[in-house]
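Entry type: protein chain
Record version: 2
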Amino acid sequence: MKNRFDLIIFDWDGTLVDSIDWIVHCLQTAGEQCGCGIPEAQAAKDVIGLCISNACSTLFPGVDETTLMRLVACYQQTYASWQAGRGDLFPGVYEMLLELKQSGYQLAVATGKTRTGLQKALQATATEDLFCITRCADETASKPDPRMVHEIIRHTQAANERTLLVGDSTHDLQMALNAQISSIAVSCGAHPEQVLQHYKPLLCLRQPTELLNIMRG
């Protein structure tokens, strides 16, 4: 796949950062504290990638607006207690990103996180300088709407056919399909390979760092 792409757009949670179990815990805690019940782990994983309000309304259907706001606030409060660092990146991810950038690829992030949450994560992992643009769900449409991909492509002036999205969830891969760009799935996050394959990724990798050898040729 060497020389096939110019722009690589990464999802954040579950793709670059080993955070899925923590997000599940935060969603389950929110449900319990707000009297909405504790969702099953896979049900919580299934909404990861959506903006947090959409995630909570999907996970806890039928709640009123006040309860939804409480769920979101509880989730955010619990999540903020995590002191993340570079060690929370999947092994070898920082080195992979650095090599890809030095090889001439434009790198970007498209995430369901808020801007505040992503900025905190970028600073904690010392990765902000590796990306030419990042887009968050509270700045644009939530996945799987392709708007954040379109905004990244416009900023970088890349062609759709020269753009690759790497993600771990069905929402990531559906966004790639909606944006008419190629995707590669990683099965280390929210959804297993047999689910991700339904969204026609070029490949399904076990770990994100396997991408490096593919891009080397």
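Comment: The CA atoms of residues 22 and 82 lie 8 Å apart.
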